[in-house]
Amino acid sequence: MIKVLYPMHLDRWTNPIASKHREIVNRNQDKNLCFYSFTSPLTKEDSIFSKELWTNIYLRQITKKDLFINSFDIIHHSSATYSNLLAVYIAKLKSLMKAVHIFTASTQIDRNNSFFKHFIFSIYNADYIIANSKAVADSIIKNFGKKIYDIIPNGVDEKFFSMERANSKILKDLDIKKPYVIFISGIWHRKRPDLFINLANFFPNISFIMVGTYTKYVIDLLKNAPQNVRYLGLVNKSTTRDLLAYSEALLFPSEIEGLPNAVLEAMVMGIPVIAQRKSSLPELIVEDKTGWLTRGDSIKDWENRLKEILNFSSNRRKLFSSQARSYTISNFSWDLYSKKHATIYRQLAKNL
Q1: Is the confidence at residue 297, as pLDDT, over 80?
Q2: Where are the domains of the chain?
């Protein structure tokens, strides 16, 4: 049996890294693969969903103490933090350095990222590097000359992110009036929430809903935001789905990415996406089929694209939604990529 360690808290549902690794576990029910990870639910939703997660017979819940007891064949992480790397180091030592260390690089090089040093350490010390987009792979090759063994995009859970599962009650609960557009992202400079807020000035009759990390930066931005901008902070995964479902569009002006889950989630729900023609966004968005790519941060271009979407007829909207969902399921279903990870684990384990 191949023993695979995921040095992370696997039951955090809004965390995109945990979501990736959960999907690999759930879609690879193989008696020759056994997965090990940690638990630390943060929200009520995490606690509810995690009950089913840990009933998986091919998944073992472990503690830090277990790192000194068990030996693993594969160690795979997709985020770079002190805790990740400490667990990797301990597991490597326990295996007498035989365990294969896989690192999935999930974002382009960003020297302003607080975990930049951990990211670099992972790049230089991993035995096998995967990138989640061509943009990320090119960034690593250009800056560090390291070999990228594979490019495996993020997938999306098309069953969870569907109009059938969405609940319009969220609009009443949060007192949100339609029509509205939405921004879903960590709220840092590189994500360009300032562009989203600026655009709101041109659409006073449309609500601009922001979902994302609570930071000093967003507080400063909101001081001068127009009245039609509303910040909700972080919300759980179900709320994210429900808000997406009834929005007119996802506006995603980010400049540096890996392969953003929010864009995939909007696409699979048939919601139009407007984004910059930068980073990995051209790898995701197909013009007129899943969304539109703007010419940089030209506010006029954003304004024109959004006007076009807001003026969709009901038939145009229905056609767009259908083709966006169909395309996304065909090209970004987790079924496609979770199996690919399992194949890599088996190939690498043969050499142990």
Answers
A1: no
A2: 2-155+333-349, 169-331
User: For a pLDDT cut of 70, what percent of the chain falls above it?
Assistant: 100
Here the tokens at position 182 are: 């939405």
Q: Which fold has domain 169-331?
A: Rossmann fold (3.40.50)
Distance from C-alpha of 18 to C-alpha of 150, rounded to nearest angstrom: 20
The reply to whether 2-155+333-349 and 169-331 are identical in fold is: yes
H helices of 230-313, where?
Answer: 237-245, 261-268, 281-284, 299-310
At 114 the pLDDT is 79
Distance CA 219, CA 305 (A): 28
HEC letters along 174-187: CCCCCCEEEEECCC
Tell which residue, 212, 291, 283, has the closest CA to residue 250: 291
pLDDT of 134 higher than 90: yes
Beta bridge partners of 9: 38
Torsion sign (Cα): 55, 59, 60, 61 = negative
Distance CA 297, CA 253 (A): 8
pLDDT value for 115: 86
Fold of 2-155+333-349: Rossmann fold (3.40.50)
In tens, the pLDDT along 17-52 reads 999 999 999 999 999 999 999 999 999 999 999 999
